[in-house]
Write a structure and sequence with these properties.
793 residues, alpha+beta, Topoisomerase I, domain 2, Topoisomerase I, domain 3, 6 domains, nine-stranded antiparallel beta sheet, four-stranded parallel beta sheet, 24 helices, isomerase, EC 5.6.2.1, topoisomerase
């Protein structure tokens, strides 16, 4: 039998395995695609950097079974291929992975082809193939400098936190400082300080109801006392309220801007309550599926080809389509003008667009909705991106606006504005407008200078100067505004300060305030006694006592290293390295010298602890702030630790203004159950019963005899996670309806929707045989695609 030879001649190496199938499909049988599974080499701390020799790094292969195996697979494929094409992501990290691949497999850096693309489509891939370049060492050096800077700051400053605040009992619990992580924490800290210093006060917001339609007109003044509002309402009884209405004015509402990473994360947070991390996960799936362009970008432009396709779509979809195309659409093409000139409101300290990416957009504007087989979150995200992209290329919406005014007592006035759409422009996409507005015409038909009697005037208590905690979306916006990090790091920075226990995403309980509202009707004044809650907040980022202590320590001794201007300067210098303007190790030397000098200034400092009394001391323990209690038991000193209440004023604590009973959280000791946190998206509830401690999670209950009769307040989530893993039969959750589970004969696929009376069970081991991948860790898109093809579910 003749030997069969492969026709594969070109091997393309990408980062994610989810791209491989589509790339091979689009490029045909002459191409084989394989994934690196991200980075393959790492720096093992400061010992890997030769500081005296221009910060020369020594890399080591990441010790991970999957990566080691993949390296062997790549090596085999390289031997079979006529040429290797490196196609990792078009950013600094992707360029560095290409460089590492070349070093590991002895590929010629000056000759090996390097291609980039921002969308996984046949057209984009073929364009990339015919216009390769080589590895850009300036970009590689910028990534290397960033990595070394992060190590210098993190590995030198973090031990100062251990020395002066809390020694780590394990790597996962160690306090840490970071070049961008700490400025992100600082934003939350300063927000907390603003809220504490806010000058809040009660004011009266007054609405007058006029005309037979009871139109609500707003008074242009807030009253600060009940006497003022009484005087106003009494004067309004006999006052002649004179009506006027302006001539219609044409106003224009600009279309939304194209999505960058940060603006998409903010919009998804505000509209869908998705975290930045969740948004990036969904977009990664959409990108790898070929539905959208690369999602880590700060560009606000589109390719020329895409602009042409959008224009054709608009003309074909809407009557008189030419009118709906933006007059400035040609300026949105990548490279036509400097992008910063497009946004006149852009702050001076915002970073320049750093990579040659487009804005986030659909790869095919004609695909209005995703297939039904896609997840609901993916469909919602795609619709948001599709709508915003189309709208950004369209004409402004125009309206006619009128403003009606009614004079009021004591030289004040009531106002009400109404709009009538003239031309829908970009708003035609979502159709969230009305062609009719009866009030618009009604207001113009009332005779000018007529006296209009009030129907009712209502004055309601509200709070002025009430500050809000930041949402994750707001933090992302501030990171971008201050030049902290880059699009690829925003989500991880938001996550990191929460993982460290410095910040928690929580609801804020408002304050119930007694309010006396006032109402004037038929010349009678009524006082309405009510209670109203102010300050309620949902899903906000709240700094924790640990975060305050860490931030105040770093502000005191490392303020220059973590101020916003310095952080932005470092990011700008990294951009300059990527452009070949400055030498990468000069920046590392400058930073290293500054860090060493600041650490030298710390040599006479002592550990941060606040003495409460002779027996109790506030300190940072393994899991955060605690009270260290020293008691004399039968002549022996016994030490135990007690949890503290939330919202402790650390300044009062430092000044010795608390008694121990005022700050110890006795509820944790008294409670028979306590919500420890979340594990795999489910609440973990710790309970103390007649026979000891047990936990419940996702409907499963497990007794933990190993914890003995320990006080409930001395147990942390980390102590019990291993028991949760032991008690679970779920290997991997693919969706709310589909999981891989352990069975007596091995793993299997469990499928049950809410409409199904009984679940269905499928063989999952066939995936390994057919796809040569591990279903426990492989990309979920690949796995779900295989399941869909195999079992039609």
């Amino acid at each position: 039998m003749p030997k069969k030879y492969s026709t594969t001649t070109s091997l393309i190496i990408v980062e994610s395995p989810a791209k491989c199938k589509k790339i091979e499909e689009y490029l045909g049988p002459g191409y084989k695609c394989i994934a690196s599974y991200g980075h393959l080499r790492e720096l093992n701390g400061l010992k890997s950097i030769d500081i005296e020799n221009n910060f020369t790094p020594t890399y080591s292969i990441i010790e991970n079974a999957i990566k080691i195996k993949q390296l062997e697979n790549i090596k085999k494929e390289i031997k079979k291929a006529d040429e290797v094409i490196l196609a990792c992501d078009a950013d600094r990290e992707g360029e560095k992975i290409c460089y590492c691949l070349a070093k590991i497999f002895n590929l010629d850096i000056n000759k090996t082809k390097r291609i980039t693309f921002t969308e996984i489509t046949e057209n984009a891939l073929k364009k990339a193939i015919i216009s390769p370049r080589t590895i850009n060492m300036d970009i590689v050096n910028a990534q290397q400098a960033r990595q070394i800077l992060d190590l210098l700051v993190g590995f030198k400053v973090s031990p100062m936190l251990w020395k002066f605040i809390s020694s780590p009992k394990g790597k996962e619990n160690a306090l840490s400082a970071g070049r961008c992580q700490t400025p992100a924490l600082k934003l939350i800290y300063e927000n907390d300080q603003e809220i504490k210093k806010a000058n809040e006060k009660k004011v009266y917001n007054t609405t007058g109801y006029f005309t037979s339609s009871n139109i609500p007109f707003q008074l242009n003044k807030h009253f600060e006392s009940e006497n003022e509002i009484k005087e106003f309402l009494e004067g309004s009884c006999e006052f002649s309220h004179i009506y006027n209405c302006s001539q219609p004015t044409k106003i224009y509402k600009k279309s939304p801007e194209p999505f960058t990473t940060s603006t998409l994360q903010q919009t998804a947070s505000n509209e869908f309550h998705y975290s930045p991390k969740e948004t990036m996960r969904i977009c990664q799936n959409l990108y790898e599926g070929g539905y959208i362009t690369y999602m880590r970008t700060d560009s606000k432009t589109y390719s020329g080809d895409f602009i042409e396709n959008v224009k054709k779509y608009i003309i074909h979809t809407y009557a008189e389509g030419d009118k709906y195309i933006s007059e400035n659409i040609e300026t949105m093409i990548s490279g036509t003008i400097k992008e910063e000139n497009n946004d006149k409101t852009k702050k001076a300290n915002q970073p320049e667009p750093q990579e040659a990416h487009e804005a986030i957009r659909p790869t095919n504007i004609s695909l209005v909705e995703l297939p039904e087989t896609m997840e609901s979150k993916e469909k919602k995200m795609y619709k948001l991106i599709w709508e915003t992209t189309l709208e950004s290329c369209m004409s402004p919406a125009s309206f006619y606006s009128v403003t009606a005014t009614i004079t009021a007592f004591n030289s004040t006035k009531f106002t009400y504005s109404s709009e009538l759409i003239d031309f829908a422009g970009w708003k035609i996409v979502s159709k969230k407008y009305s062609n009719e507005n009866k009030e618009y015409y009604y207001l113009q038909n009332i005779k000018q200078n007529d006296i209009i009697p009030y129907k009712k005037i209502y004055s309601k208590v509200t709070i002025k100067g009430l500050k809000q905690h930041y949402t994750e979306a707001r933090l992302v916006q501030l990171l971008e505004d201050n030049g902290i990090g880059r699009p690829s790091t925003f989500a991880s920075l938001v996550d990191k300060i929460q993982e460290r226990g410095y910040v928690k995403k929580e609801d804020v309980k408002g304050s119930l305030i007694d309010c006396n509202d006032y109402e004037l009707e038929d010349d009678d004044i009524f006082v309405i006694d009510t209670k109203r809650e102010f300050g309620n907040e949902k899903g906000k980022l709240l700094i924790q006592p640990l975060g305050i202590i860490v931030m105040e320590f770093l502000n005191k001794f490392f303020v220059d290293l973590f101020n916003y201007e310095y952080t932005k300067k470092m990011e700008d210098e990294l951009d300059n390295i990527s452009k070949g303007i400055i030498v990468w190790y000069d920046l590392c030397r400058q930073c290293n010298n500054q860090v060493d000098q600041l650490i030298e200034n710390l040599k006479d400092e002592t550990k941060i602890e606040f003495k409460i009394d002779d027996f109790n001391t506030f300190m940072i323990g393994k899991y955060g702030p605690v009270i260290k209690c020293c008691e004399d038991v039968d002549g022996k000193e016994e030490i135990n630790f007690k949890s503290i209440k939330k919202d402790i004023d650390l300044k009062k604590l430092e000044n010795g203004e608390y008694k121990v009973e005022e700050i110890v959280d006795t509820n944790k000791t008294a409670n028979t159950h306590y919500i420890m946190g979340q594990y795999k998206g489910n609440d973990v509830i710790l309970k103390k019963g007649k026979y000891g401690i047990y936990i419940t999670c996702n409907g499963n209950t497990r007794t933990i005899k190993e914890l003995g009769n320990r006080p409930i307040e001395n147990i942390r989530l980390d102590d019990i996670i291993k028991y949760l893993d032991e008690g679970s039969n779920i290997v991997r959750e693919l969706s709310k309806d589909m999981t891989i589970r352990k069975g007596p004969k091995g793993d299997y696929l469990f499928y049950k929707t809410v409409k199904m009376k009984k679940p269905k069970f499928y063989d999952i081991k066939a995936f390994v045989n057919e796809e040569k991948r591990d279903y426990k860790i492989c990309d979920v898109v690949i796995l779900k695609s295989w399941i869909n093809d195999k079992y039609q579910i």
